[in-house]
Predict the structure of Pyrimidine-nucleoside phosphorylase.
Amino acid sequence: MRMVDIIQNKRNGNSLSDEEIKYFVRGYTDGNIPDYQVSSLLMAIYFQGMDERETATLTQAMVDSGETIDLSAINGHKVDKHSTGGVGDKITFITGPLVASVGVPVAKMSGRGLGHTGGTIDKLESISGFDVEMTKEQFISNVNQFKLAVAGQTGNLAPADKKLYALRDVTATVDSIPLIAGSIMSKKLASGADSIVLDVKTGTGAFMKTLEDSQALAEEMVKIGNNLGRNTVAVISDMNQPLGYEIGNANEVREAMEVLQGKDIPDLKQLGLELAAHMTVLAEVFNDYETAYQELEKNLHNGKAFQAFRSFIQAQGGDVQQIDHPETLPTSAYHVEVMATRDGFVTAIDAESIGIAAMYLGAGRATKEDVIQHGVGITLKKKIGDKVGPGEAIAILHSDDEHPTDSIQKVQEAFEIGKTQPTTNPLIYKVIR
C-alpha cells in the first residue's frame, strides 16, 4: 500500500477503505509516514469530507493507537459527559454529583484549560489539596465507593489524535467536521465509558459559532459513538453569553456549589439537570427523561447532590472546610467594577471576549507554560435582557492587579447595550439521539 495512492483516492472524492485509513493512522503515529504526505491527505479530507463509515474507522484507528482505559472493575453502567468548551462552563461540577447521587458511576478524565475556555482540572485545583494524580486502582476504588472521580488525562490516550491535531493546527485543516468529531470521540472512547452525553456549545464563546455547524458536529459525533458501540446523546446548548455569573477557577467552584445547595441560577440549573437526566436514562436508572429530570431536581434540594460533591472532593484530598465555607476558597487582592457607559438593555455579550478578559487576569492560559491564578476572575452583574443605567456596574473584575486596564476594556467591548429589550436565545436548541 502506498500513501500517494491514498491521497489520490481522497483527492478524487473516493471513500477510503478501512485498511487505507488504518494504514495511514498507524504509519503516521509510528513516524513512518512524513508530515507532508499526511498534510496533503488532511487537506483532501477537508475538501472532500468523509462518510459515516470512514469517520468511525478513523476514530477507532486513533483509539487503537494508544492506551485505552479498562473500567470493567467499576460496578454499574459508566456514563461520561463531554463539553466542547465554553466560558463559565462549570457544569461538570453539577452533573457529576447529580448523577452520582442516584448511584450512577462517573469516571471522568479531564484536561487543563488553554485559551479563553477554562479547564475542569484547573478549577478543581483551586481547592486546597485536591489531587488528580491517582493510581488506576485508587481511581477505580473512588468511583466504586463514591460514584465520582476526576483524573487528569493520561498522555498516552489516542496519541494519533495528538499528532494529527498538531498538524491540522498548522495546515489550516482544523475546522473539518469529520476530523473534529473523530478527535473528540477518540479520547472519549479511549476513556472507557459505556455511554456518552455530549454538550455541544454554539455561539460567540464556542468553537462552533453557528447552530448549523454545531448541529453537524453533534450529529457526526453521535453517529460515531453509536457505530462504535457506545450509546451517545448530544445536547446543543447556547454559548452566546457565559454560563452563570462567575468566570474563573475558584469563582466557578463556588457558584456550582450554590446550585448544588439549591440556589436557582437558571441556566446552570437547567443545563445541569438536562445533561444529568440524559446520563441517568442511558444508565437505565430511569425509564424516561421527564422522570429523571424531576427526581434529580429533588436531589438539588434535599442535599444529596451536594453531599456527593463533598465526598468526591474529600476522597481526592481536597480540603472539605473550603467546601463547607466557600468564602475560604482563593480570592484576589482587588475587586474592580466595570461600569456601563450608557443606559438601556443588554442586547448581547460576546462570551469569547469575556473569556479573554478573564485570561488576561490570570484565570486562563495563553500558552501551556502560563501559571493559573485560582482567585482571579469575573463576576457578571448583568446578563442579556437585563436593564442597565449609566454608571451602573455590568461586571466585577477579581484581579491581583489594581488597574487591569486590558480586561476592563475587553469587558466593555463585550457588552452591547441598546434601547429595546431583546428576546433571549433558548438555552437548549436541540437534543440528538
About this structure: The mean pLDDT is 94. The first helix runs from residue 3 to 11. The radius of gyration is 22 Å.
